[in-house]
Every structure is written in C-alpha cells, then in structure tokens.
Amino acid sequence: xxxMDMPQIGPIDVEPDVIAAKGEPLDVLLxxxxxxxxxxxxxxxxxxxxxxxxxxxxxxxxxxxxxxxPADGDGARWRVARLDVSSDAxxxxxxxxxxxxxxxxxxxxNRGRGLELRWPEVTRSDPDLDHLxxxxxxxxxxxxxxxxxxxxxxxxLVGPGRDGGSFAFVAGREGESAVPLDxxxxxxxxxxxxxxxxxxxxxAEYEVHAWLMDLSxxxxxxxxxxxxxxxxxxxxxxxxxxxxxxxxxxxxESRLAMLRAMVAARAQLPQIVExxxxxxxxxxxxxxxxxxLLGCSPADARGVYMMxxxxxxxxxxxxxxxxxxxLERALSGQEAPGG
Length: 339
Fold this sequence. Notes:
Blueprint: E1 8-9, E2 12-13, H1 16-20, H2 26-32, E3 57-60, E4 65-70, E5 77-83, H3 89-92, E6 96-97, E7 102-105, H4 108-111, E8 115-118, H5 121-125, E9 132-138, E10 150-151, E11 153-158, E12 176-177, E13 186-193, E14 204-212, E15 217-218, E16 223-227, H6 229-239, H7 249-267, H8 269-277, H9 283-294, H10 298-305, H11 316-332
Helix pairs in contact: 7-10, 7-11, 9-10
C-alpha cells in the first residue's frame, strides 16, 4: 500500500489490517518475538496511566519492533512501545512503553485533501532563494482543519535535465503551525531550502520543488530560478569549514565526543531508562553508570544525562548526524597551514 493511503498512529504509518486486528496480550506477543515480558513493564516515571494488558500488535518492524495497543474502547488513542533489536534488549526482556497516548489519524492523503502548495506572485516575480515564500491553499469545498499536522515546508534545487527529485531533510523543524483554512483561503509560510550538493551547482536555470512535510504534498509547478556565480560562491563560503582559533579545538573535540555518546545513547535508550530507574545514591552515580554502559567519559555521560527529549524524536538522528558532520568539517578546516 502507498504510504500516502496508510493511517497513522501518531507519526507511524500503519497498515489498516494491522489496526483492525484483535491484537493479543503483551506477554504473548513478546514471547512470540522472542522477548520475555518484563516485570514490571517499564513505562517511565512520569506515566500514571495503566499499560494495556491486551490488544498489542507489531506496528512497524523496519528498525526494531514498534508495538501498539488501543488505550480506549474505540481505538481512537493508542499506547506505543519499542523493542530495540540493535542491542541486547530482546535477550534482557527490556521493553520501553512511551508515556504519551497517540491519536489514530486518517492517512496523509485524507488529511491533506483539498490542500495545494503554490508559489505566490511575490515569489515568482522576484524569487529570493534566501527567503522563499509559498502558499498552502485550500482548493476544496469545505473548511480544512489541522489534525496534528504543521505547515513546515522544505524545498530543493533541481538542475537542468533532472527529474523532480525527492524531499530533503532540513535541520530545525521550528516551522509554522497549521491553521484552519476556509475554501479559497491560504497560509503563507517560508520554504526552507535544503542546501545539499553545493559542489555540483553551476550557473544555470534551476527548478525549485517544495514539499509540505507532514502531509507529503508537493508543488504541482516548480519555481524557476537563475543561479548566479555570486550566489553559488556565497553559499559555498557559508558552508565551508570555518577555522576556529587553536584554543577552540579542544572544545570542538569535546563536543564531538559528546555527540557521539548521544548517538550511542539513542541506540540503548531502554537500557539507559532502566538504569536511571534503579536506586542510586546521587546523580553522579547515575552518570558513572551511563559512562560504563556507553564506554564514554564521565563528561560525555553527563551530556547524555542532560539530553533534552527532542533528541529522541523521529528527527533526532538527522539532527545529530548534521551536527556531527558540521563539527567534523570544522575540525578538518582547522589544520594549521602547511600541516
């Protein structure tokens, strides 16, 4: 089935027959997956809602196992859990049940029905690649109401003789919130240009294609722009590794090590949560345990301990990868002349 036609539980695409299935007791499902049921179930210190004992099924198995069960009688709200097969989570029977309930939502195609992405005249007549504005237009006959979606738009450049390509991730999803739109109304938002492949750019006419990320809606018509040598040179200079003063190298290397520890922490999140729930005399002891688990320094473990929750959302790996790349490029550009 096309992912556009699949309903979603929170951000997770789920086949309709999986949602319609009866499900089974949690311990039965875990046994079938080769994971003994933990006792008690780890559902975090801030979760006061009981974990459903029945109705569990596999929602997604592409990266470990994402499990889910209805949290109410009509299946409008769901609880979601994860088994991480990249670690010893299965062998240890460790299961993390996320504390939040997730809404069952219609497919992207149904939620986005009637919406179109259009380049306004102000953008088409005088395109500014540093400030691309685009309209989300309700072309339907009924009022459009957001259903957990935002108006975050990303754009990409397509060179001469190439197809429309695909969307590219842009770091920082602090995009505009979606607003209700009556027929004919529009919301004007910024399209954030993904600047990958800078080395391949050359002065020529390009097409700009944009995507409304949450609903996977693409512009029906591209925006045509002329890339100038000056714009390309400026963008390459902005992206080039900057040479920080020598006394900053130690700071950059320390930051790099901490980010790598954060990447390792994402892969072992259930173990870290369980570790933090164990009795501990103080915060320092918990940090020492994290350092031992991840094989990192106490300073890096402290950074993991203080990680904000948005590091663990579905875009966390992309943001971490981009930060790592930027730091590595900065360090590579710091070599002394002639070294």
